Amino acid sequence: MVVPSPTLHRAVVEHMVRQAVYQRLGKPMPAMARSPNPLVVNVSARHCHLTPEAVEALFGKGHQLTVHKWLYQEGQFAAKETLTLIGPRSRVISNLRILGPCRNLNQVELSYTDGIALGFDLPLRISGDIKGTLGCMLMGPAGFFEMSEGVIRALRHVHMSPDDAKFYGVKGGDEMKLRVGGPCGVTLDHMLCRVDKSFKLEVHIDTDEGNACGLQASMPCELTK
Amino acid sequence: MVVPSPTLHRAVVEHMVRQAVYQRLGKPMPAMARSPNPLVVNVSARHCHLTPEAVEALFGKGHQLTVHKWLYQEGQFAAKETLTLIGPRSRVISNLRILGPCRNLNQVELSYTDGIALGFDLPLRISGDIKGTLGCMLMGPAGFFEMSEGVIRALRHVHMSPDDAKFYGVKGGDEMKLRVGGPCGVTLDHMLCRVDKSFKLEVHIDTDEGNACGLQASMPCELTK
Questions:
Q1: Statement: residue B34 has pLDDT above 60
Q2: Nearest Cα to B225, choosing from B189, B197, B182?
Q3: B219 vs A: CB within 8 A
Q4: Which of A192, A213, A215, A224 is the mutation pick for testing B, counting most B CBs within 10 A?
Q5: Which position among A81, B4, B32, B172 has the lowest Cβ density within 10 Å, counted as fewest Cβ atoms?
Q6: Looking at beta carbons, which residues of chain A come within 8 Å of B208?
Q7: By the 8 A CB rule, do B18 and B28 touch?
């Protein structure tokens, strides 16, 4: 089956139009239009990353994740496969989405709202930094897989290329702020910068943060130091 | 049964200590210590307000709400009684807390996360302004009660006395900002001021907002224009 390439994100189209309009009018571009890339803000719903071994334990020998939907970052996708998570107090989250491709660690990213539903305090961690965190049991159609650690709330972060980092005057590991407009607007502090030449400019916030401000694609968003 | 009066909120104790320390040291007080009242920030979990008629329909003729826990605002309480809410798409929220005393309208306040779970878009409204909003069915031990309207996400707001309003230089209906510190700090815009001489200074945010910043009593909070 051929998976269609994703449609353009609204922020990408707006950025192209903004640049074209300023150019046509011959007016000096504001900072927002001068930025090398459009700012895309996406909400990461709860999900997990798995190793190939975990995928085999859960879905059967030789199983490979299949693409449900391509994500904004090149090569990343939401898989068709979902899981059941059994927390440390035997409470359950069903239909936990897996993101592909496989990684070299197993990690579950939940919101604090999910943590309360599961009945335990989630640690706030940079994605990948899971040492000493609580684990959980995962259940798939072919079996169980026990994670000894790796259940976290991921620190809000922004993916960017070195070009973007130069434009904003930041480097990997720095923190920025994201201002979201609208009738229940917020400013999110401590937005961690993750810089890599493969990255497209994209902020990842979780569902608590997205719902706090009722994030919609039409809302003005601004990234500042 | 005698319901004990609530213990002092951490913010109240801190404010008293802060004022005493500055006075003892004979140093000029910073704005935070000069404020007439401590700033208390509380998360309102999902809840509803009911008329006496709705309480009777749900809990039986002549039933009166009983106090589970006194709230920070004088005379307000979380009732022992809870309800089941059946949404417009037949999805259910159990154990919905009722806040007392009874009011002259029926209103359910949910988070956007709850709205997504129920499968519909909640309108963002000032508490009390429910005209034209969606309704729901409520189920109690003695019967059902149909609300034709009144299911909302309540706009974040701050209760204050005229003294507090004078100190902050605002009036009822104005908007302020609440800055919350900590490792996932946020600033919440559009914090509606509600001024009444019976009000104690208290910010009400919902669980999405509280979980976005992982609000804890130890976190520094600041209210600004």
A1: yes
A2: B189
A3: no
A4: A213
A5: B4
A6: 113, 208, 211-212
A7: no
Confirm or reject contact between A184 and chain B (CB < 8 A): yes
Minimal Cβ distance to A212: which of B116, B183, B208:
B208
Q: Compute the mean pLDDT over every residue in chain B, rounded to the nearest whole number.
A: 93
Between CA B33 and CA B11, with CA B218 as vertex, the angle to 5 degrees is 40
| ipTM of this complex | 0.88
8 Å CB contact between B213 and B184: yes
Query: Which DSSP string corresponds to A63-96?
Result: ----EEEE-SSTT-EEEEEEEEEE-TTS-EEEEE
**Residue B151 three-state SS:** strand
Cis link prior to B162 (omega < 30° from 0)? no
Least confident of A120-129, A144-153, B24-33, B190-199: B24-33
Q: Which residues pair with A203 in a beta bridge?
A: A41, A158
Amino acid identity, position A147 = M
In chain A, what percentage of residues exceed pLDDT 70?
97
Phi, psi of B116 (to 5 degrees): -65, -40
What's the rounded Cα separation, in Å, for the pair A219 and A209? 14
Which residues are paired to A179 by β-bridges? A187, A222
Radius of gyration, CA atoms only, chain B = 19
CA quadruple B31, B33, B34, B35: dihedral, nearest 10: 90
A1-60 per-position pLDDT tens digit: 445 555 778 888 888 888 888 888 888 888 777 889 999 999 999 999 999 999 999 999
Q: How far apart are CA B26 and CA B8, in angstroms?
A: 26
**Pairing relationship of beta strands A151-154 and A124-125 according to DSSP bridges:** parallel
Amino acid at B128: G
> What does the pLDDT look like over B202-218, one tens digit per residue?
999 999 999 999 999 88
Question: What per-residue confidence (pLDDT) applies to B225?
Answer: 94
Residue B93 has pLDDT above 70, yes or no: yes
Residue in B111, B116, B188 closest to A186 by CB: B188
Residue A206 near residue A111, CB atoms below 8 Å: yes
On chain A, the residues whose CB falls within 8 A of the CB of B214 are 112, 124, 153
d(CA A72, CA A194): 15
